[in-house]
Write a structure and sequence with these properties.
11-stranded mixed sheet, binds zinc ion, 3-stranded antiparallel sheet, alpha+beta
Length: 356
């Protein structure tokens, strides 16, 4: 069964309203603070299907699973990682509770701060109103496919005993008369210090491009709050499919990159410095699980997939819009036409010069 969070006043569906930062009931108009509504709704009842012993999902061949909508009984199809979606039949937010409880229960969430209207405006600005994109890229039908999605993130805490050995160069240039003398002194440099990084973020989802997710970061942790399912209705969400353990090597690798920067920052008395040996110890000692908001649009054009990703908290945008072949040819035809006109003018000027 896919659950829906119901209004305690009238039993209609509620959604998280981004502009108000409240849970609102479209039917009776009641607004709730997320924590208030959580108190009012019996949590046991909300998650009753998560604890059902019988498997609630039937796995289908094409990696989709089906659930019954608890508003209308229609079948809700969901990808294996989807934890919240919508009923295609009645439009109710559908929450698959077993995918954010137990081992999948997030510790934190950054609620959406950017609503769909703002996301749409930013999307249009990003693709220059569709000037060079395929004709239906900015159609209302395509824009309607833009998803508000909570993406699973791991936040790592790393402790490091930095111990780096390298060289620093000091360059002295002196001028006397016509002669320039350059003296380079090379020093052995050792830097030892303790460092720690808290909440170093990595997305825990395989199918979204890592570079795209990296490009819309950072998220501002001022809005990081304790997880509540109350922020989910009205948005899609996914559970992680990359475990924290699977990411440990990448966490250490990124810590090493940060350590290199620290070495540079602490050797500024030299004109240049390089590390020859890193004897540092890195200890990934803790991690938390969080959901971060993105606006997401996937578009297929001439066999290629294009992705628009926008940070749902800060509005930072990443991705490359598809370029319409037709519009490109049209644009270059215009350029050619202008160029031809210019050539004509120059030629006639030259001719005019000869005649004159
Ligand atoms: Zn209501
Ligand atoms: Zn339904």
């Amino acid at each position: 069964m896919a659950d829906t969070i119901k209004c305690p006043r009238c039993s209609a569906n509620v959604v998280f309203d981004v502009s108000k930062q409240k849970i609102t009931c479209a039917f009776c108009g009641t607004e709730f603070a997320p924590e208030e509504l959580m108190k009012e709704i019996n949590e046991e009842k909300l998650f009753e299907h998560a604890k059902a012993e019988e498997p609630t999902a039937n796995k289908l061949e094409w990696e989709k699973q089906q659930f019954a909508c608890n508003s209308c009984g229609a079948t809700v199809f969901a990808d294996v990682n989807t934890s919240t979606t919508f009923c295609m039949f009645c439009g109710s937010p559908a929450i698959i509770a077993e995918r954010f409880t137990g081992e999948f229960e997030p510790d934190y969430i950054i609620p959406f701060k950017i609503d769909k209207d703002t996301a749409t405006t930013k999307f249009l600005k990003w693709c220059k109103g569709g000037l060079m994109t395929p004709f239906n890229f900015v159609s209302p039908k395509n824009i309607a496919k833009m998803k508000g999605l909570y993406v699973p993130f791991w936040l790592f805490d790393v402790d490091a005993k930095l111990d780096m050995v390298g060289t620093g160069k000091k360059v002295l240039v002196t001028n006397s008369g016509n002669e320039t003398t350059t003296i380079t002194d090379v020093y052995n440099v050792t830097r030892k210090m303790n460092a720690c990084w808290n909440n170093m973020p990595f997305d825990g989802i395989d199918r979204i491009d890592d570079d795209l997710m990296a490009a819309v970061q950072p998220y501002n942790y001022d809005d990081l709050v304790k997880f509540s399912p109350m922020y989910l209705p009205g948005f899609f969400s996914e559970k992680y499919d990359v475990s924290a353990e699977d990411l440990t090597n990448r966490v250490v690798y990124r810590s090493k990159e940060y350590a290199k920067k620290i070495f540079k920052e602490y050797t500024t008395e030299y004109n240049s410095s390089t590390i020859s040996q890193d004897n540092s110890e890195y200890n990934v000692y803790d991690h938390d699980y969080a959901l971060f908001p993105v606006w997401f649009l996937r578009y297929k054009y001439l066999g290629k997939t294009y992705e628009f990703v926008m940070n749902g908290q800060t509005g930072e945008v990443a991705g490359i819009p598809p370029q319409s072949i037709v519009k490109k040819i049209m644009a270059s035809a215009v350029v050619l036409a202008i160029a031809a006109v210019i050539v004509k003018i120059i030629v006639s000027l030259m001719l005019g010069g000869f005649v004159g």
